[in-house]
Design a protein that fits this description.
By secondary structure, this protein is α+β, with helices and mostly antiparallel strands. The chain has two domains: 104 residues, Alpha-Beta Plaits, CATH 3.30.70; 139 residues, 2-Layer Sandwich (Alpha-Beta Plaits). It contains six helices and nine strands, in the order E-H-E-E-H-H-E-E-E-H-E-E-H-H-E. Helix 4 runs antiparallel to helix 6.
Length: 258
């Protein structure tokens, strides 16, 4: 499936608490009904004072055309939808979001590990997996990846997929691991997104550090090996991330048997 990930930044003069209240109670009921949306997740930071963003919104679509119709192309942070609910959602974001400061990413998701639903850990297309509702309430580390200088996107992706992801999926405490590849790398703001789920926040912090730093110094064996490996392909200091708790606001994928 195709996925639109928006890193949300509140408007100037609004507190994080005011932002969350409006986002969850006013905007989310609109966003979840945007035409073509099959699944909608929100992620709230566990430590808002140290988080780089006020939250993450993730909207899943069956096909890329529906996503672009509703939310625009990767080449712009803004969009001008023509469909009724999508247009209403776009109008509403002006009530709480700083659109020009809101990075976003359009990509296709790949599942490398899923112990939440008892599936085998082999990498698979997300469209063939079920049980997404089980991620509700899990703690999530979302890293927005930037390749090192001198490396092409293709070289970055090859290394990430062939060398790093096999390590990352086995980091201690990880119960689910996704990678998201840009559908239009030339216009994408990042080279990819890595999403690691944990049952307990303490396990996440042990493996990947706290929200107050883009870097971390893990002590557990596989996590330490993965941290050492990122220096082979990532510009860590340019890599935004968010540690939060996920809420599944809508899931029609399982209900329809995909």
């Amino acid at each position: 499936m195709y996925k639109h990930i928006a890193l949300l930044v509140r408007q100037e003069g609004m507190t994080h608490e005011e932002f969350v209240d409006y986002w969850q109670n006013e905007h989310t009921p609109i966003a979840r009904d945007i035409e073509g949306v099959a699944r909608y997740h929100t992620v709230l930071p566990t430590d808002p004072e140290n988080a780089e963003f006020d939250g993450i919104a993730e909207l899943y679509f069956e096909n890329l055309e529906d996503l672009h119709d509703a939310l625009g192309s990767p080449g712009s942070r803004d969009y001008d939808p023509t469909k009724e609910v999508a247009a209403k959602a776009r109008e509403d974001v002006d009530n709480f979001l700083a659109i020009e400061e809101r990075p976003r990413f359009i990509g296709e998701e790949k599942v490398w590990k899923d112990e939440v639903n008892g599936d085998a850990p082999e990498a698979s297309s997300a469209s063939n997996r079920t049980g997404y509702g089980d991620t509700d309430g899990l703690y999530k580390h979302s890293a927005f990846l930037v390749r090192q200088d001198g490396m092409t996107h293709e070289e970055f992706r090859d290394y990430w997929e062939d060398n790093h992801s096999p390590l990352a999926k086995d980091i201690e405490g990880v119960v689910r691991y996704h990678t998201v590849y840009p559908t239009d790398p030339e216009n994408a703001e990042f080279d990819g997104v890595a999403e690691l789920y944990f049952e307990f926040l303490e396990d996440l912090h042990d493996a990947l550090g706290s929200p107050g730093s883009r870097d971390y110094d893990p002590t557990k064996e596989v996590a330490a090996k993965a941290r050492e490996d990122v220096d082979n392909f990532l510009a860590v200091e340019k890599r935004p991330r968010l540690i939060g708790q996920e809420t599944v606001q809508k899931d029609e994928v399982d209900a329809e048997g995909y």
